[in-house]
Write a structure and sequence with these properties.
globular, 280 residues
Length: 280
């Protein structure tokens, strides 16, 4: 049995670089301060073409690996010769990352993105922990990993996005792009019930987040912008596919106030308390 699959792309944020050391505690404290507590509306834009996307319990804890500044920009697209991370090739990012991670020689020689800084790493770490309140409510579970071989979500860096011709996208403020390869949840659950874990293993592909180190002006993105973009992009990775229409929400195109809002929290809670047609 072959699972039908689709590739959906969500864009809109930069995420910072993560390392796994002492700052994790500080990031958790920052997440606690940003945990929303007030009731609010659920925005329907979390769906894509009327279908919901979320991780299932069998996939948890979701493993997140965040590169320390590594970029994929030097890897050429075999068709165009331009960077494999060009925005016309987002559907190929999951496979590209799988291939790089499995090729230890290539992986070990990946360069650091221009204008990357350790401050951006700390900002990204705090942004990702914005969603940790969901664990206390029993809705999902995710953790950082230092082992890229076991990751479900990968974060890499770029100093600028390029289109299919390899030219920089200077006309907008896109700070990050998330590529998700989706499968029908029912098909995967049926395979799990049959204990056909090999089919599951071959079918699933990682979620890939590509994050930007600098703005169109070639100035490194500051801490607060990276933190907000990190939290925003991770919201996409968790399953909010569209953008909130309310500008004060983190999942709006303007990143709101930089933290998970009451609307964002209500939406992700609704998503994880109900069945979904698709899963990463």
């Amino acid at each position: 049995m072959k699972a039908r699959s689709d590739v959906w792309i969500v864009s809109a944020a930069v995420i910072g670089l993560v390392t796994f050391s002492a700052p994790v505690g500080a990031a958790r404290q920052a997440a606690k301060r940003s945990t929303p507590t007030t009731a609010a509306a659920i925005y329907p834009q979390y769906r894509k073409n009327g279908q919901s996307v979320r991780w299932i319990r069998e996939q948890m804890p979701i493993k997140v690996w965040i590169a320390r500044g590594l970029t994929l920009d030097g890897i050429p697209d075999p068709v165009s010769g331009n960077p494999i991370t060009n925005t016309a090739n987002t559907s190929g990012w999951p496979d590209a990352v799988m291939n790089v991670v499995q090729n230890q020689q290539q992986f070990s020689t990946l360069p650091i993105a221009e204008l990357y800084s350790e401050e951006q790493y700390m900002a990204a770490l705090q942004g990702i922990y914005n969603w940790k309140f969901l664990e206390k409510e029993g809705l999902l579970n995710y953790e950082l990993t230092e082992n890229p071989d076991e990751a479900d979500i990968y974060v890499f860096w770029t100093d600028n996005f390029v289109h299919k011709l390899g030219l920089a996208l200077l006309e907008n403020d896109t700070r990050g792009i998330t590529a998700k390869y989706l499968l029908p949840t029912s098909v995967v659950k049926q395979a799990i019930a049959r204990n056909d874990l090999e089919l599951v293993r071959r079918s699933l592909k990682p979620v890939v987040i590509l994050l930007r180190t600098a703005g169109p002006d070639r100035v490194p993105l500051p801490f607060n912008k990276v933190k907000a973009a990190s939290a925003h992009e991770f919201g996409h990775a968790l399953g909010i596919d569209g953008h909130s229409p309310y500008p004060t929400d983190l999942m709006s195109l303007s990143y709101g106030r930089g933290v998970v809002s009451a609307n964002d929290a209500a939406t992700i809670r609704y998503l994880y308390r109900n069945p979904a047609e698709l899963m990463p």
